[in-house]
């Protein structure tokens, strides 16, 4: 793309144009850059120093084939994007945050909230339109409304109240919260927030929210639980009527690799021991979940689950051909 300039262009605009040229080609001579930007070689040298001050590693070499070259730096300097690049970046990040890119959700959302600070208002309708055309046929995280996700991310960042409709007892209820953190599991996005109407911490599934909005009322952040730990323990156990704890004779890393983090909480208890916390609609389901891991284990809580283990063991023995029950 031809870069047109004039002697009257501002210093900032001229430096940005210089950076754009350095990104387009591997090596430029000083006279070539001066001619393209319509300035003197001395001005080019000054602008190169300005880029270096900003963190861009611009190398200069003498002789035949020498010139200015943009190198790879150890630190990531500010990214400069034109309109098309900004739109493409935002849409790609929205796809990753929504789960279309496996494992990229957290990083994509963090990057998207940074981009959101500087994305021009005129580009937002095009980003919204293009993001609506992005789809994925792969499994993984439950799809969420990208605008709802961004609204909540902004509210967390700006420390302002948020509101949304949320199903409760088979009907939608309006919730008013102080949003604290967005947490991504292997399946879903959750919001950890302080529920102002219930005066307590709650976590909410983002895919179940509708009419998500950020308010203008700012709040002072409270002392909060660790977001990831709180959400995981709630999803894996607290939401169920029955919970159980087990001591498993295997390392925590081994067990975590075998089962979803949304199904159990795994706590390290030694090199070859770990504690499992899980919940389900009934204790038999929790017991089978741990049994199928294939490791020796002991029931820690509740005590009656130990009796249930013995009862099921007798039933399994009686079902085995040629085995007599003692």
């Amino acid at each position: 793309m031809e870069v047109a300039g004039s002697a009257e262009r501002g210093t900032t605009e001229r430096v940005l144009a210089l950076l754009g040229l350095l990104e387009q080609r591997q090596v430029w001579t000083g006279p070539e850059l001066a001619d393209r930007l319509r300035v003197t070689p001395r001005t080019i040298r000054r602008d190169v120093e300005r880029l270096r001050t900003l963190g861009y590693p611009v190398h200069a070499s003498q002789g035949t084939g020498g010139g200015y070259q943009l190198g790879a730096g150890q630190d990531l300097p500010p990214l400069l994007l034109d309109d098309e690049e900004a739109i493409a970046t935002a849409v790609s990040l929205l796809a990753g945050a929504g789960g279309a890119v496996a494992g990229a959700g957290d990083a994509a959302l963090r990057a998207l909230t940074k981009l959101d600070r500087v994305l021009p208002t005129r580009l937002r309708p095009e980003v919204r339109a293009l993001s609506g055309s992005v789809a994925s046929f792969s499994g993984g995280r439950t799809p969420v409304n990208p605008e709802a996700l961004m609204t909540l991310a902004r509210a967390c960042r700006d420390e302002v109240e948020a509101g949304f409709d949320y199903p409760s007892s088979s009907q939608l209820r309006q919730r008013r919260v102080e949003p604290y953190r967005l947490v991504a599991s292997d399946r879903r996005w959750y919001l950890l927030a302080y529920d102002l109407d219930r005066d307590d911490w709650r976590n909410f599934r983002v895919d179940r929210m509708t009419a998500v909005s950020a308010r203008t009322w700012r709040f002072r952040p409270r002392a909060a639980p660790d977001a990831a730990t709180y959400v995981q323990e709630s999803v894996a156990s607290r939401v169920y009527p029955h919970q159980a704890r087990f001591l498993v004779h295997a390392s925590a890393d081994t067990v975590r690799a075998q089962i979803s983090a949304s199904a159990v909480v795994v706590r390290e208890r030694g090199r070859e021991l770990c504690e499992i916390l899980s919940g389900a609609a009934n204790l038999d389901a929790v017991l089978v979940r741990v049994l199928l891991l294939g490791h020796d284990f002991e029931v820690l809580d509740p005590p009656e689950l130990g009796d249930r283990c013995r009862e099921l063991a007798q039933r399994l023995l009686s079902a085995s051909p040629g085995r007599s029950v003692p």
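Residues 83-97 form the longest helix (15 residues). Residues 1-9, 135-139 have pLDDT under 50 and may be disordered.
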